[in-house]
Amino acid sequence: MEAIVAGPVRRERLTAEIMERTGIDEAMIERLVRGFYAKVRADVVLGPIFDIRIKDWEPHLAQMCAFWSSVALMTGRYHGTPMAKHLPLPVDAGHFDCWLELFEQTAREICPPEAEAHFVERARRIASSLELGIAGTHGVMLGNGERFRRNQTGAV
Ligand code: HEM
């Protein structure tokens, strides 16, 4: 008879299985996070949005490593509220496209194909849920496949 495994033991097994299947480990996550935010900071569209809000980058990078460890490896290392942090940001579909383009480019450079696909699938899903949430705060209910665009004057 198979034992019932729950809680931490089950999570550890899941993490081990994902690591085995994708090759992802904490060191790869750190390379991805550092590589990605180096691109973000140098980007003309995204850079200023982060620069104004993040004065000390090391704690943010540590937080992002914990986040990706939780998302990609199911380690439960991250305890935060990303939606609340993004709702007030002056961003729309264009910013999310830009974010994803840089993220996907970094994942391609740093990860083997299975790991790249694993990260990118999750990043796209989370980006789309953040965009949906931001649209909602502006009274816009996005339908399937619809994007959130602010008015043409660029007012945000
Ligand atoms: C338009 C694209 C995005 C922009 C401009 C953006 C910007 C930011 C900024 C400025 C912060 C710091 C907020 C603060 O500490 O007050 C932040 C935090 C964070 N972002 Fe984003 N972000 C974007 C998309 C994403 C996406 C797609 C993800 C996930 C896949 C993500 C995950 C996070 C997480 C986990 C935090 C940390 C929240 C916390 O402090 O717990 N972001 N982001």
UniProtKB/TrEMBL annotation:
<dbReference type="Pfam" id="PF01152">
    <property type="entry name" value="Bac_globin"/>
</dbReference>
<dbReference type="InterPro" id="IPR001486">
    <property type="entry name" value="Hemoglobin_trunc"/>
</dbReference>
<keyword id="KW-0408">Iron</keyword>
<keyword id="KW-0349">Heme</keyword>
<protein>
    <submittedName>
        <fullName>Hemoglobin</fullName>
    </submittedName>
</protein>
<dbReference type="InterPro" id="IPR012292">
    <property type="entry name" value="Globin/Proto"/>
</dbReference>
<keyword id="KW-0813">Transport</keyword>
<dbReference type="InterPro" id="IPR009050">
    <property type="entry name" value="Globin-like_sf"/>
</dbReference>
<keyword id="KW-0479">Metal-binding</keyword>
